[in-house]
Amino acid sequence: MSARPNHESAVPQAETTSPHRAGFACFVGRPNAGKSTLTNALVGQKVAITSNRPQTTRHTVRGIVHRDDAQLILVDTPGLHKPRTLLGERLNDVVRTTWAEVDVIGFCLPADQKLGPGDKYIVKELAGIRKTPKIAIITKTDLVDSKTLAEQLIAVSALAEELGFEWAEIVPVSAVGDQQVGLLADLIAPLLPESPPLYPEGDLTDEPEMVMVAELIREAALEGVRDELPHSIAVVVEEMLPREDRPADKPLLDIHANVYIERPSQKGIIIGPKGKRLKDVGTKSRKHIEALLGTPVYLDLHVKVAKDWQRDPKQLRKLGF
Ligand SMILES: Nc1nc2c(ncn2[C@@H]2O[C@H](COP(=O)(O)OP(=O)(O)OP(=O)(O)O)[C@@H](O)[C@H]2O)c(=O)[nH]1
Ligand SMILES: [Mg+2]
């Protein structure tokens, strides 16, 4: 990842009494901790897909928060986990590269789960990054009572002490309940370096449209699938072309995308009886894609087998990892 955009794209800023700040803050934590949901809540728009399946995010996604006093570039990362495949290893590498580059690290810990070995493993690594301020973010506070939350706050604080560092802040938030999300931005802003904005006003992400479209299809495909299948799904948009011979006031965008799975036996599950499941995935994701692109879309989905792609370097490269 190249951490900073080209400075030529930076927007000049008038002198003010308190200096303008801009920089990068990443969210790290176990899979399913609520990192992407929090990123979206802060940005105020969906820039990262979310699901109740672990390991939903597979690349870093930047979400940009524009304020008068600061520009926060949030870097949502894949959940750090014990890797079982080459893909898993690659995802963990992405997380480690990211937290070494950012100005602030936000460690996300769900309020409704006891601080476990997976969390300790991550925080131990974070403790080694001395120079970067670290914020502990207790997510999903809407799911617990105040006593459980208080215990979690104490546990995360004690863990840092044990490892010989102190959190710059400890913040409980609920992205779904919109509790303290604004406060979190208020706490990150002063930790960023003095800088003019790094992205033009109005940019909420730097994700390419084709990637966002593929992600929206994957998000719809993840719904309702279980066990190993969520991990086996990958989506690649092959083509996005305006349909020819359409009147100017009735445009249509043709999108051709492939949904990859790992084994022929998974094909039937994804497609469903008489193709119903795949059709539902198409209908659901098309709505989100149309909202994103602001144009009617014809979505053509094909299911293909990329044998054991999570473990195969060649296939991984083809799928963009
Ligand atoms: N009740 C509640 N649920 C939440 C909250 N934030 C996230 N969730 C749910 O938790 C699940 C995981 O959320 P994600 O944002 O995808 O988690 P993640 O940390 O990005 O997961 P990975 O990308 O797999 O690492 C989803 O079902 C979310 O709806 C919250 O504040 N409250
Ligand atoms: Mg995520």
Task: Please give a structural write-up.
The chain is of the alpha/beta class and 321 residues long. The chain contains ten helices and nine strands. It has helices at residues 35-43, 86-101, 117-127, 146-163, 181-188, 209-222, 229-232, 264-271, 276-293, 313-318, and strands at 21-29, 61-66, 70-76, 104-110, 134-139, 169-172, 234-242, 253-261, 297-305. A six-stranded mixed sheet has the order 2-3-1-4-5-6, sandwiched between helices. The site of magnesium ion (MG) has 6 residues, from helix 1.
Short description, anyone?
This protein has 321 residues and is of the alpha/beta class.
Radius of gyration: 21 Å
What is the count of DSSP helices, taking H or I runs of 4+ residues?
Answer: 10
Low-confidence stretches: 1-9
**What spatial form do the alpha-carbon principal axes imply?**
globular
